[in-house]
Design brief:
Elements: E1 8-14, H1 22-32, E2 36-47, E3 52-57, H2 60-71, E4 78-81, H3 87-99, E5 105-107, H4 122-132, E6 138-139, H5 143-150, H6 159-167, E7 173-176, E8 185-192, E9 195-203, H7 212-225, H8 230-246, H9 267-273
Parallel strand pairs: 1-2, 1-4, 4-5, 5-6, 6-7
Antiparallel strand pairs: 2-3, 7-8, 8-9
Helix pairs in contact: 1-7, 2-3, 3-4, 5-6, 7-8
């Protein structure tokens, strides 16, 4: 019996009592894709499927200590970073990433919840740009987040231009998702230093989803942890995420939640939920 049969992924994220997003979404996604998930709590939220009532960031020393203790114990194949919570936490995670440069880091720049509740101040965004993005292999903003990250108040740059400016901050790849764009299909585009690597179009599903971005970024981390090349990892992660959304369910009075275990249900169960 192998002592380490599964790729190990360490996620930095805030809790979500609804299980729709955050740490819980990351853990479900990573486990569903055959990884062993490790978790570092960056913040605690009071929220349900409709929105965020309150948020308390964890102190940076606690974030660093959680990560460093487990990193000394287990061989981590990928990092995934979601809600960070504070400027001090950005610095703590960036320092860890610098100490482990061979571990690919997937950054989901969660600037607001799916319901529109803010998770990031301008100061935190600035710290992310300066300290964390240079240590990032791939960042996965939606189109709204991409435009906020480039910090241009004078114009609304194209998504191609946003990707160019974000990549210039030091990351290797930028994956911009098009859920919020006014297009018939959702178009997600991966960029690197040379420009567009691939664009993938997906059927636009009805409804609003809680945790779709967390699911996608965690799926990318899972694919990279298995040794997959970036373009293939991004394509496979999108396919998995779209299937979770297609099978999504609405357990409360708010948004739909992706079903990260859709593959474990039979066809009749999946139909009954919709």
């Amino acid at each position: 019996m192998s002592t380490n049969p599964y790729p190990i992924v360490l996620t930095f994220a805030a809790t979500d009592p609804s299980g729709g997003a955050g740490l819980q979404a990351d853990i479900l996604t990573l486990a569903s894709l055959g990884c062993h998930p490790l978790s570092v709590v960056t913040g605690i939220t009071v929220q349900d499927s409709a929105g965020v009532e309150d948020f308390m960031p964890v102190e940076a020393d606690w974030v660093a200590d959680q990560a460093r203790m487990i990193l000394e114990d287990m061989p981590v194949a990928a990092f995934k970073v979601g809600v960070i919570g504070s400027v001090d936490n950005v610095a703590a995670i960036a320092e860890i990433a610098a100490d482990y440069p061979d571990i690919p880091l997937v950054l989901d720049p969660v600037l607001a919840s799916g319901g529109g509740d803010e998770f990031a101040t301008d100061e935190l965004i600035g710290a992310m740009r300066e300290l964390l993005i240079p240590h990032t292999m791939i960042i996965t903003p939606n189109s709204i987040e991409a435009r906020r990250l480039v910090d241009d108040e004078d114009e609304e740059p194209s998504l191609d231009e946003c990707a160019r400016r974000i990549r210039a901050l030091g990351c290797e790849y930028v994956l911009i998702t098009g859920t919020h764009e006014n297009t018939a299909q959702v178009i997600n585009t991966l960029y690197n230093r040379g420009g567009k690597v691939r664009s993938d179009s997906w059927q636009r599903l009805p409804g609003s989803y809680h945790g779709s971005g967390c699911t996608l970024a965690s799926a990318v981390a899972a694919m990279l942890a298995t040794g997959m090349e970036m373009a293939d990892a991004v394509r496979e992660a999108q396919e998995y995420t779209w299937q979770t959304l297609k099978a999504g369910f609405r357990p409360g009075m708010g948004q739909f939640i992706p079903d990260r275990l859709f593959w474990a249900r039979d066809g009749s169960d999946a139909q009954d939920k919709n």
